[in-house]
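pinned: reference chain
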Amino acid sequence: MDKQLQTIAALLGSEVPNRRLAAAIVLGELAPPDADVVRALGSALGHADDTLTRELVAALGRTRHKTAFPYLLPMLLNAPPALRDAAGKALAQLKMDIEAELEKVWAKAATQQKLALMDVFARLHSDGATRFLLTGLFDPDFEMVKAICGAIRRHISDANEEERKDLFKQIASFLKTPRVKKDMRATTSCLILLGSLGNPAARSLLLDYIGPKQVAFVRRNALQALANLSRDGAGVDAMIKKVLPLLKEEDRENVVSPATALLAPLEFPASVVGDLEKLAKSDNAEVRRFAVRKLGHQTGKKIVSSMLDWLSDADQEVRDIAAKALCRIEDATQPLLEKLGKVATADDAWNVAKLLKPHAERFAKDAKKKLAARCLDLLEKNDPRVPAYTWLLRNVDAAGFNAQIAEAGEDLRQRKKFAAAVQSLRLLANTEFFNATVRYQLSFSGLKTSPKDLSPGRRGEDPCLRGFAALLRDPSFKLFDCLAKDKKLLEPEDIFYIGFHFAESALGHERQFSQQVFEFLIKTWPKSEQAKAAKNKLKTEGKSEGATT
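pinned: its C-alpha cells
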C-alpha cells in the first residue's frame, strides 16, 4: 500500500464518523486490488453503522481481491437483508473461484442462508454457477425450486448479451436431458426461465411443450413463456399456425386463455384466415371474439361482408369489434355506403354513418353526389334518417354538401314543396352559405307553411317573420322587390300576414314596408278578402293615401 492509500485507510479508524465514511467511499472509487487495503476495509466492519457498512462492503467488492471473501461471506450469511444484498453483489465481483467456495458453504447452510447464496450464484453468470443452480431444480422442496428460478430471473437483466446467450444455451441443453424430461417441476422451471430470457431462438423448443401429450400446467407455462419471447425472428407465422388449433380445446385456464394471450399482440398472416373463420363460430365467447378481432385486421370483400354481418350479432362485444374493424378496413367504404342505402331506421343509419366517417377521404366524387342526392330525397319525404346523412355529408365534404343544399332548397321552393324547402334550407344555418338570399328563401318557405295566426304572441314566435325583419335591417337587400318577383308563388293571405305584422311595428322602416306590401296586395289581388282587410288596416293606421288609386 502506498503512502496515499495508507493515509486514506488510516481515516477508517477516525473518531469522526464522516471521515470514516469519506475514506470508505474514496477507497471504493479508487478500488485498489491491494490486500492491505482489503484488510483495512474489513477491519473497519467491526465497529461500523449500517451506512458505513454498506460503503465498506461496496469498496471490498470493487477491489475484486480474493482476500475480501472472508469479510464478505459472514455479511452474506448473517447480516440483515439490506446488507446481505450488498454483500452478495460484492462477492460476485471478486476475482477467484468463488463458486467452489460457495458450494462448500451451501452444504452446511440453513435455508435462509441458501437463499442468500443462490442470489450470489445467480449474479455470477458463469457456466459453473448456472449449472449449480439448475441442478437445484431437482430439490424436493418446491419453495427452494421457486427461489432458484426467482434468483436466476431476477439477475437476467444484469447479464450482458454474451452471458444471456450462454445462459440460454445451458438452460436449453438442461431441458433436453433425460432426468429433466422425467421431472415436471424441473421442466416447468426451465420453460419459465427460457421465457424470461426472451430469446426468440427458444420458440421452436417451447412449441414442443404445448401439445396435448404434455400435462396441463406444463402446457400453460410453455404458452406463457412463448408470450414473453421477442416478436422478432423467424418462426412467428409457424407458431401462430401451431397454436391456433389449441383454441378449440376445452381447458380454458391452462390452454385457451394463455394461447389467446400469446396470439393477441401478433400480426396474423393471410394464410390463417380460414382457421380464424372456423374459430369465429366457436361456442366459446372468448375464442369467438378473438377470432373476429383478428379477422378485422385482414382485408378483402369476404372479410368486409363478415364484419357487416357481425354488426347485428347477439354479442355486443362482437358488434363493437366488427364496427372498429369496418372503420379501419379500406375495402369497407363501398359496402358501407351500400348498407347505408338499405337500412330502414334512423338508429341504423346513424350506426352506419359513424362507421363511414373514417372513410371520408376515400369517397369518390360520384359517391358524394349520390349520397347527397339520397339525403335530399329523404329530406323531401321528411324521413327520420336525414340527420345521419347530413352529419356524414358534412364530415365528408361540408362545402360541397352545403352548396347542394342551397341549390336543392331553392329548387324545392320553386316547385312549391315549401315544407321540404324549410327543412333543407334550415340546414344551412350557422354555415358560411347562410347569406341574405338563403335567409329570404328560408323565410319565404316558412311563410308558406306558417299557420299565419294574427295574434301578437304567435306572430312574435314565427321564424319567417323574424327572418323578414332581419332582412329589413339589411339596407343592401331589397325584400319588397324579391317578394314582388315571387308573386306567382304567393297568395293574398301570405302578403296580408306580412303586412299586418309589420304595420303594428314601432319601427318606421317596418311600417313603411308594411304600406308597400298592402299596396302590392291591393293592386295584385284587388277582389280578395285580404285586399279589403288591407285597405281597412291602412285606414286604421292612417295610411290610406294612394291605396285607392
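why pinned: The first helix runs from residue 3 to 10. Residues 227 and 261 are 7 Å apart (CA to CA).
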